[in-house]
User: What shape does this take?
Amino acid sequence: MLDVTAIDTFYGETQTLFGVSLSVQAGQVLALLGANGAGKTTVLRSILGLTRPRRGDIRFEGRSIVTRATHEIARAGIGWVPDDRRLCPTLTVAKNLSLGEKRTAFRAWSMTEVIDIFSPLKYLMSREAETLSGGEMQMVAIARALLGSPGLMLFDEPSQGLAPKIVDDVLGVIRRLKAAGIASIVVEQNADVALGVADRVVVLLHGQVAWSGEAAALATDAGLKRRLLGGLA
Amino acid sequence: MGTLLNLLPHLVNGITLGLLFALIALGFMLILGLMEQINLAHGSLFALGAYFAYAICAPRLPLPPDVLGMWAAVPLGWRFAAAVVLAPILVAPFGLVLERLMRRTYGRDPLYGLLLTFGVAMVLEELIRMVWGTRDYILPVPREMSGGFIMLDLIWSTYRFWAAALAIVAMAGVWAIVERTRFGAMVKAGAHDSEIVQALGIDLTRLRVWVFVLGTMLAAFAGVVLAPLWGIRPHMGVDAVVPAFLIIVLGGVGSFWGAAIGGLLVGMVVGLSGAYASEWSMLSMYLLLIAVVTLRARGLFGKKSVLEV
Ligand SMILES: Nc1ncnc2c1ncn2[C@@H]1O[C@H](COP(=O)(O)OP(=O)(O)O)[C@@H](O)[C@H]1O
Ligand SMILES: [Mg+2]
Assistant: This one.
């Protein structure tokens, strides 16, 4: 579904990603792990065309998207849940959600279905986004991406700043999307959170892929986990 | 008491000007919000609106003599109505070209946009001089809308009420677009965070074009409606961009009501100072600009408005 091949991404003249490759199959969850500053967010920004790789290729559903405009990449079916949620603070929840609504080649999600998953949304619709709690904002951000009918969701540190109960809810949603055939890349510093839902894992270290393989292999090999993720696990 | 009452017509004058200033400022603000560039040529689009209205009403159109004769035979009321509707549409392509020129400045230092739009403003002003000359024109107003009437022993100008009414209708339209449509939500979200709107699948380039067209048409509309009050002259664009600038500084970026209140405030200052000496009304606006910028340089184009503090 998504194939990232040897991308080099820069901020100005500073190279941040060095030949990063990874791939995600339909309905699969890939955990993208690594320390703060390893380049995880930059991988997502590269996929979305927000920070364009200078070299390498990114293919989605067989077509190269590496030179496409960001809105075209989104319309191809890639949804984004940024680490800072990025809701429009002065708009109501309903309007923030409606901004995300679009059709793609993938399964469409109606507002009713999305509210079915995130039932508290019902009562938040007329609230301005800036008045929401962190957990509520995360819920709106995920719902907004889902209303865009994605085939692939990019979650950037979905557990960040959330209470454990809400983190469980978020993981539940990722599992539900997976069951519905939607693939995900879950960026996490908290490895255990991501390993709970992931099929495969890519570990980044200073902008390079340090390890990739089955999530189960990493989860069961305490030594490997400690070596790759150090204090993060 | 008597003298205070005498100020009433000037107050109405101020409100009318203020509403029209607010319209200019709203377009200026929408463009500033979404492009993050100050459009100094915004006033020139306003001036073009006034000149096109003159061409339609006078009528001075580049048409074959017999067609022009037929158009001139149409009652002025209809020609004026046509100007109100058509002038903004005719100015829109100028906005489109300007937006295209400004694209290179998006995401860059606002200085680039300032210099570019300053240059465009000069070019448009010279173009106006080339086509229409340097003389002043008066936009003819239909008899039903012109003249005056006496109320409370005071003389009131009829057209000012018409102008205020037209401005209020346009303001209501802008409010509805910004607050009640998906387009308005896209504009607000795009002004706040241009990356996320694109990542949601919204074509920011196209959105910017439409916002520019909307801002251009609002400026041109204000130019048509203000022309009978201000007269039409090449420099009128600069006289219009100053209040817009001032209103944004006073009312903050991205607030509809900030622009409305800021507009009324500036209009009132111009209107009331005009009560004492008409030559002071424009000068008072520039003095207010200097005062506000000197005292509140920190708040310039901040998200917060001076009025909220
Ligand atoms: N907008 C930016 N401009 C310049 N450097 C950046 C920017 N964003 C991130 N970086 C740098 O790129 C590196 C990788 O950042 P990031 O991808 O955010 O890491 P992670 O998400 O893994 O914490 C860091 O060294 C960071 O300082
Ligand atoms: Mg990050």
